[in-house]
């Protein structure tokens, strides 16, 4: 299967689509700095994740979130290992290799969030932020230990923390201001304004009517000719015939997905399948005596990294289509539990698909929900 290494590396390093910026003022991006990851989206909403050294993948770590406007305060969260039960009582101690920072009752230190514990004490937030810039590791010790924590809670590595915060400051134009996390100065941050997200395509119900069970022979041949000529080196064309859409040759995996407008059909050709991913190449097809076939486009207005794998922007993975809204989603998983990869949503505007939201998590570290937002709309 030729696509397996391509798609898997793309899930972990970030898929890149050959497309223009789709009108965004900024391009979303995720960067790695040793044991820290940081990302900002098209309106400068930023997030950083730090984890224990050594690639532990349970989910335990520290998260820093910050909005773009000048007065926005950083929000700190302790994300819990997936195997733990969230603690609700006792005490918690924050410390570095230099010594203790502070010990607080659990209820004074945290507020429960959907996927993490939010540090609620303002003084503790500032003390932890200072520690990120000056130390090698941060220890968060719960007493009693969380249920399910069979081993001592590992230290969160601070290797890369300063660089990640500096990158976040630079993206939010905070360097040298009183609000900077990495290089504070005397300048006011009052002139920093939140950016207005672009408008999302309005929900647009897809055309009602019969969806043909298959294309005409001429249209089917035209789709497969284009598929083979453009994607031969990316998609897997060589599987043996099978009995379902998930198996067999690429042509056997051709499906009419839905009627988008009166004469335009969304057609998918299976490109690659794996244990938890099914990818298709999508085409807009007008069937008839002389079929018209063109690749569908699902734009990703993101910054490109040299190390990332370029994937044509008509290939999506694990797609769901909501005919009532005209929205299509994709979820490319880096591994089965779904803690890394890429999630995206697009809306049909009557002529093309436009981006609604994009999220990525480049590394499989046990983070199920708090991925990096790289593109948002209103």
Verbal overview:
- With 378 residues, the chain is an alpha+beta fold.
- The chain has two domains: 25-171, Sandwich (Immunoglobulin-like); 217-375, no CATH class.
- 14% of the residues lie in helices and 32% in strands.
- The protein is built from five helices and 23 strands.
- It has helices at residues 3-13, 106-109, 122-134, 161-171, 217-231; strands at residues 16-17, 29-33, 36-40, 46-50, 61-66, 75-79, 91-96, 99-105, 110-112, 117-119, 137-143, 156-157, 254-259, 265-273, 278-286, 292-295, 310-311, 315-317, 320-322, 327-333, 341-348, 353-361, 372-375.
- The chain has a seven-stranded antiparallel beta sheet. Strands 13, 14, 15, 16 and 18 form a five-stranded antiparallel beta sheet that branches.
- Strand 21 and strand 22 (353-361) form a beta hairpin.
- It is elongated and about 75 Å long.
- The model is unreliable at 1-24 and 240-244 (pLDDT under 50).
| Overall pLDDT level | 88
The Rg value, from CA coordinates, equals 24 Å
Gross geometry: elongated
Helicity, in percent?
Answer: 10-25%
| Strand neighbour order, sheet with most strands | 2-3-4-5-6-10-9
Element pattern in H and E: HEEEEEEEEHEEHEEHHEEEEEEEEEEE
**Terminal Cα span:** 40 Å
Oligomer: single chain
Total individual domains: 2
| Tally of alpha and pi helices | 5
Q: Using DSSP, what is the number of strands?
A: 23
Coarse structural class: alpha+beta
Features:
378 residues; alpha+beta; Immunoglobulin-like; seven-stranded antiparallel beta sheet; 5 helices; elongated; disordered N terminus
């Amino acid at each position: 299967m030729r696509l397996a290494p391509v798609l898997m590396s793309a899930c972990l390093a970030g898929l890149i689509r050959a497309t223009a910026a789709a009108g965004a003022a900024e391009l979303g991006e995720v960067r790695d700095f040793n044991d820290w990851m940081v990302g900002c989206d098209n309106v400068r909403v930023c997030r950083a994740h730090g984890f224990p050294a050594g690639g532990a993948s349970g989910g335990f770590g520290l998260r820093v979130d910050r909005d773009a406007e000048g007065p926005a305060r950083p929000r700190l969260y302790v994300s819990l290992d997936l195997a733990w039960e969230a603690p609700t009582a006792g005490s918690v101690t924050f410390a570095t290799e230099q010594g203790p920072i502070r010990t607080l009752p659990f209820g004074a230190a945290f507020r429960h969030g959907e996927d993490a514990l939010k540090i609620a004490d303002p003084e503790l937030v500032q003390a932890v932020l200072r520690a990120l810039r000056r130390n090698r590791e941060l220890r968060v010790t719960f007493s009693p230990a969380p249920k399910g924590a069979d081993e001592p809670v590992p230290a969160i590595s601070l290797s890369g923390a300063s660089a990640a915060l500096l990158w976040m400051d630079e993206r939010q134009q905070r360097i040298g201001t009183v609000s900077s996390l990495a290089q504070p100065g005397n300048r006011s941050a009052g002139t920093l304004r939140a950016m207005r997200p672009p408008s999302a395509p309005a929900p647009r119900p897809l055309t009602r009517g019969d969806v043909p069970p298959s294309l005409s022979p001429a249209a089917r041949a035209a789709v497969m000719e284009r598929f083979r000529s453009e994607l031969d080196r990316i998609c897997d064309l060589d599987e043996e015939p099978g009995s379902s859409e998930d198996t067999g040759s690429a042509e056997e995996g051709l499906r009419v997905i839905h009627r988008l407008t009166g004469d335009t059909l969304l057609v998918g050709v299976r490109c690659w399948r794996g244990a938890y991913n099914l990818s298709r190449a999508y085409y807009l097809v007008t069937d008839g005596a002389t079929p018209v076939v063109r690749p569908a486009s699902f734009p990703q207005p993101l910054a490109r990294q040299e190390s990332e794998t370029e994937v044509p922007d008509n290939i999506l993975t694990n797609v769901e289509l909501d005919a009532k809204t005209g929205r299509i989603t994709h979820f490319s998983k880096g591994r089965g539990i779904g803690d890394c990869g890429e999630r995206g949503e697009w809306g049909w505007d009557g002529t093309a698909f436009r981006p609604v939201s994009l999220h990525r998590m480049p590394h499989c570290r046990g983070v199920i929900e708090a991925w990096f937002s790289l593109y948002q709309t209103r």
